Amino acid sequence: MLKEYTEGDNYGKINSTNIVWHHATVTRERREKQNGHKSFILWFTGLSGSGKSTLAHALEEQLHQMGCRTFVCDGDNVRHGLNKDLGFSQEDRQENIRRIGEMCRLFIEAGVIPLTAFISPFREDRNVVRRLAGEGNFIEVFCDCSLETCETRDVKGLYAKARRGEIKDFTGISSPYEKPENPELVVAPTTQRWKNALT
Prior knowledge:
The protein has 199 residues and is an alpha/beta fold. It has helices spanning 28-35, 52-65, 75-78, 90-109, 123-133, 147-152, 158-163, 192-198; strands spanning 41-45, 70-74, 113-117, 138-143, 185-187.
C-alpha cells in the first residue's frame, strides 16, 4: 500500500495545507495480481556513457517479451518535459531525482516496473528514493564504467565540451559522481558483447 506522507518524510516539509490522504480501493496488490508480477524500481546509475540507457532498454525489451508491464524513464527524455525547468546545479540535480523518485513511486503503486536511466550522481539522493520506495522495492544497478572509457564513447561530444569549459557542472569533470556503496547489482560492460552494443 502507498504510505501516507508525514512531516519530515524524505525531502522534508509538505507545504500544502488542508489536504487529506485519500485511500484507493484498487490497491497495488490487486494491480500486481492482475499484471501477474510484482512491481519494483530498477535504478540504473553511472557516468554519462556508462551504458545506463542501453542496458535499461535492453532489459525492458526482455521483460516486455515476458509479459511484464514496464516503462523506461530516461534522463534526457524527462528533461524535455517533467523536468524541463531544471538545470544541472547540485540543487537542480537533487530536485530532478526527487521528482523521478515520486514518479517511480506512482509507477510501482500502479503495478508497473519502472527502469530509470539517470546519472543520479549523489549517493544521498539515491538513498532517499530507496527509502521512499520502501523495503524490497528499489534495485540499484551500478554501471561501473571508468571515466576514460566513457570519454571514448562520447558520441554527443559532451565530455569534450566539458573539458573545454563549455559545459558547467558536468559529472565526472567539474561535478562529482558518488559511487554506490552497496548496490544490488554491479554491471561492468567490458565484454565484447557490451562493447558492441554501446558503441
